[in-house]
Design brief:
Length: 492
């Protein structure tokens, strides 16, 4: 029986594509350099001197006995009025501009690897339509899990930056406070009855507990269960709190740029409607997991004039999956708008500075403008990583939970009687005294089947269903908090 089959071929082909075409074709590079993004150039010292009517100082070089210049060049620093009328020049972003930016390599790898993993996933899904995987390992899940781990690692790396330096006290405190707030919220969510919020963790725990106990008994070990429900929920809540802290500043950044875009398009009703729709879609997805509000009206209640509910249970599950994918696609399409709104912060900073009294050095003003473009890839990661997490958690939830995209549960022509299969494999192994390659494969299948009997689809539905819902909740909660803050404290 093939363990990997055609999936291994798909994976090897994609690895070859990454090696050959990756350096030449990149979605990440295209999003930054081919979508019309414009950056602002800081004014040079000569331009500032001319605007402020400051004469250029004559520099004197001190020479040593051999006639050579001594020392390093001195930085030309002078003061200018904050209210100086400065006009910033702008140019389109090119590949040479972004290649040296901080976190550009991480951003490019996250986006491009997500594209490759997504291609492998959809090819595998199409392949399963005609050739079910039977007892094979789904390698596309390995790619998806790698993307999830890499996205979490990048969010953690960006958050750690707020804990470095003496000037990050406010950001550090915000991350810690929000982490504890989301820890408390997650504890409240975990005690909500499954009939209200169908996250599926209760069924997942019961299934895991029973199957694990049965597995341990077969190994000659007596156990009532591998872990306490309270302990498991505590660790899940801690994970939720940490993830909430990681989502805090990405959510605030997205909310700020969203607020700026609403100001830009206040005369364009269609674009405002599109922006508000994409902003509200995560809330709609959160509501779809609240049973009395969504599933009851769509799959149980029969309205007047109808003989059956609006949707079947299977169609409802597919609807949730499709809406998550649609939300991710919309946010990816609108990504250049949000990035341009961020780049325009250089212009807005200078305009706000003109309303202030006092003076500022030329170096500080230039840093103020240049820093916006310098942190472009950081902001891009903060925008992309959360939606990448939501997207790939959804794919894992769909596949391991054995759902289908067309409204029916995924049915495969597989051997479901694992006990009979195990007995057959054991008999084959015992018949031969000498070990061979076939015997080793049989042992591996026995181990794989034992794991499948413990980690059932119910367990996966609970774990990854809750992970998907929690990421969507964090995305909406953090962006909503940021939008409320911008509404009352924005200076634009």
């Amino acid at each position: 029986m093939a363990l990997l089959g055609a999936q291994l071929v798909i994976t090897m082909v994609m690895i070859s594509v990454i090696q050959k075409l990756g350096p030449h074709y990149s979605l990440a590079r295209w999003l930054l350099c081919s979508t019309g993004l414009v950056r602002y150039l800081y004014p040079t010292d000569s331009e500032l001197r001319e605007l402020a009517n400051i004469p250029k100082e004559k520099t004197k070089n001190r020479k040593n006995a051999k006639g050579q210049t001594n020392g390093t060049a001195k930085v030309d620093t002078f003061h200018i009025p904050r209210s100086l009328d400065i006009k910033l020049d702008s140019i389109k972003i090119t590949n040479l501009d972004v290649i040296h930016l901080r976190y550009y390599a991480e951003y490019q790898w996250l986006i491009d690897f997500s594209v490759y993993a997504s291609i492998i996933y959809w090819i595998t899904e199409i392949y399963q339509v005609w050739f079910p995987l039977k007892n094979e390992i789904n390698l596309s899940m390995v790619w998806c899990i790698l993307v999830v781990l890499f996205a979490i690692k990048l969010l953690f790396t960006l958050t750690v930056q707020y804990f470095k330096g003496e000037e990050s006290i406010g950001e550090r405190s915000t991350c810690i406070v929000m982490g504890f707030i989301y820890l408390l919220i997650s504890m409240m969510v975990l005690i909500v009855d499954e009939s209200t919020l169908e996250i599926g963790l209760e069924d997942a725990y019961d299934s895991f507990n029973k199957s694990a106990s049965s597995f341990l008994e077969k190994q000659g070990l007596s156990s009532s269960g591998p872990a306490s429900k309270i302990v498991l929920k505590f660790f899940i809540a801690v994970w939720c709190g940490i993830l909430g802290a990681l989502f805090t500043f990405p959510g605030l950044r997205i909310a700020k740029t969203h607020w700026v875009l609403l100001k830009y398009f206040q005369d364009n009703r269609f674009k405002q409607l599109l922006l508000n729709l994409t902003f509200a879609l995560p809330f709609v997805l959160i509501v779809l997991w609240i049973k009395p509000v969504s599933r009851f009206y769509l799959t149980e209640r029969i309205f007047s004039g109808r003989t059956e509910p609006l949707m079947s249970e299977e169609s409802f599950e597919s609807l949730r999956l499709f809406l998550v994918v649609l939300t991710v696609v919309l946010k990816l399409v609108l990504m250049p708008w949000y990035l341009q709104a961020y780049l325009d912060m250089a212009y807005h900073r200078l305009e706000n500075q003109k309303k202030e009294a006092g003076r500022i050095t030329n170096i500080e003003l230039q840093k103020q403008v240049a820093a916006v473009f310098y942190y472009l890839c950081v902001v891009t990661l903060q925008y992309a990583a959360p939606i990448v997490l939501c997207y790939f958690f959804t794919l894992i939830y769909k596949t391991l939970g054995e759902y289908n995209w067309i409204g029916e549960f995924h049915k495969q022509n597989v051997v479901t009687n694992y006990t009979k299969l195990n007995d057959t494999l054991k008999a084959t192994v015992q018949a031969d005294e000498s070990k061979s390659i076939l015997d080793s494969a049989a042992d591996f299948h026995l181990t794989l089947d034992s794991l499948k009997s413990v980690f059932t689809k119910t367990v996966y539905r609970g774990l990854f269903g809750f992970a998907t819902w929690w990421c969507l909740f964090l995305y909406f909660a953090t962006t909503s908090f940021g939008l409320v803050y911008e509404t009352y404290f924005s200076t634009l």
